[in-house]
Automatic annotation (TrEMBL):
<dbReference type="InterPro" id="IPR004430">
    <property type="entry name" value="3-IsopropMal_deHydase_lsu"/>
</dbReference>
<dbReference type="GO" id="GO:0046872">
    <property type="term" value="F:metal ion binding"/>
</dbReference>
<comment type="subunit">
    <text>Heterodimer of LeuC and LeuD.</text>
</comment>
<dbReference type="GO" id="GO:0051539">
    <property type="term" value="F:4 iron, 4 sulfur cluster binding"/>
</dbReference>
<dbReference type="InterPro" id="IPR015931">
    <property type="entry name" value="Acnase/IPM_dHydase_lsu_aba_1/3"/>
</dbReference>
<keyword id="KW-0456">Lyase</keyword>
<feature type="binding site">
    <location>
        <position position="416"/>
    </location>
    <ligand>
        <name>[4Fe-4S] cluster</name>
    </ligand>
</feature>
<keyword id="KW-0408">Iron</keyword>
<feature type="domain" description="Aconitase/3-isopropylmalate dehydratase large subunit alpha/beta/alpha">
    <location>
        <begin position="13"/>
        <end position="463"/>
    </location>
</feature>
<dbReference type="InterPro" id="IPR018136">
    <property type="entry name" value="Aconitase_4Fe-4S_BS"/>
</dbReference>
<keyword id="KW-0479">Metal-binding</keyword>
<feature type="binding site">
    <location>
        <position position="353"/>
    </location>
    <ligand>
        <name>[4Fe-4S] cluster</name>
    </ligand>
</feature>
<dbReference type="InterPro" id="IPR033941">
    <property type="entry name" value="IPMI_cat"/>
</dbReference>
<keyword id="KW-0004">4Fe-4S</keyword>
<keyword id="KW-0100">Branched-chain amino acid biosynthesis</keyword>
<feature type="binding site">
    <location>
        <position position="413"/>
    </location>
    <ligand>
        <name>[4Fe-4S] cluster</name>
    </ligand>
</feature>
<dbReference type="GO" id="GO:0003861">
    <property type="term" value="F:3-isopropylmalate dehydratase activity"/>
</dbReference>
Amino acid sequence: MRSSAGSAQTMHDKIWNSHRIVSRDDGQDLLFIDRHFIHDITAPAFEILRERGLKPRAPHRIFGTADHYVPTHSRDMAAVNHPERRTMIEALTRDAAESGIQIFGLGDPRQGIVHVIGPEQGLSLPGMTIVCADSHTSTHGALGALAFGIGATEVGHVLATQSLWQRKPRSMRISIDGTLGAGVTAKDIILTIIATIGVAGATGHVIEYAGSAIRGLSMEGRLTVCNMSIEAGGRAGMIAPDDTTFAYLKDRPYAPKGEDWERAVAGWRELASDLDAVFDREITIDAASIAPMVTWGTTPEDATPITGVVPDPDAIADPGRREGMARALAYMGLVPGTALEEVPIDRVFIGSCTNGRIEDLRSAAAVVKGRKVAGRIEAWVVPGSQQIKAQAEAEGLDRIFKAAGFDWRFAGCSMCLAANGDTVAPGQRCASTSNRNFVGRQGPRARTHLMSPAMAAAAAVTGHLTDVRRLMEGA
Ligand SMILES: CC(C)[C@H](C(=O)O)[C@@H](O)C(=O)O
Ligand code: SF4
């Protein structure tokens, strides 16, 4: 039997069952899709639709934003002088206008990274099925939704039918119990999880994050954790909605209002996994054992506490792993045994759908305040959305960053993927709050170290990877 025994259901079961339209003999279910997000990479799917003479079935369920290709030094389309990027941004505007789809384009005060603005606008709600042609759609599961990335052909299917054939993934619960230490954040939780179970550790599963340390996280922190579910191989990540979720969503532009809100919350309270629900896999991690983390290699599982050293491939028995590690270290320009805190950096990127939210900027600013960016380091803050940028400015965070020597940019994916031209130069080493440290991710030969916003801020002001706890008040 897949998932739960008897009638007890996981949250994944509940959302799946309430969206199943019909089942096929081959084990696939047709799911109704509540919300479909599109961005400036979705153009190929609209091509598929046009070729078949079809139109979006439910444009009111679709929302779009320009994020991957937008410039972050300007909001002016004239600043997009790269023909391919221009075409992609314009295609989104055209496709949306033709179909009556609401988009938040370049220049719109609601524009931002799709996984930031969905929750922010109250478009991503508990109990929903949410899809987008983007692997980090798992982010939205933090609100108690079933949210996952899909490919261009599937996007075409969803556009045309507002439904999608899927085989139900298995379920996995990752419980983080106890209290996090000072300086330890949601990013450190998820990097620890990935370092523990590996980048394929959750393959074929929907992860439910549970336990007192997860319940204790803010909505922003939960979004960070769910964002990187895909980096552990998970199909989706989710967290049961609770008062933290409802407080975050209340009065958001697209969230239900008045009596509708009360009714919705009452329904959302029923979504949590039943107490006796059985998961296909269970993993438990003690929150107190988690330290501020950094990656040293070229996959997110190459992560270790900042107190450690660059690992030695020769100490690894498995020949495949040994070779992979040696290759990663050569790319990263790191020598085994070097204390991680001695690794100098050239660039800092605070942003992305993982860590570009207001709380992330606050925690980085708290470290930066009264300090200066070290040496010739080029440090950037790229808010995840224009709303976050405005809020940060209202709180004076931009002034803290700018006084320290940071560049304060407009919202977009920016240096997380470098698709808009914001790159880390060849050979440069970047302390980054994003989610992927793949070879060439931030530009050809760029070297990426993933970490939390507070850790990236600490690296910016010291010039090398740094245990943020050294810079914290009272430390
Ligand atoms: C380009 C896009 C489809 C891609 C994704 O699927 O995640 C990007 O957002 C990323 O983070 O690599
Ligand atoms: S910020 Fe990075 S991870 Fe997130 S959607 Fe953009 S490119 Fe993908």
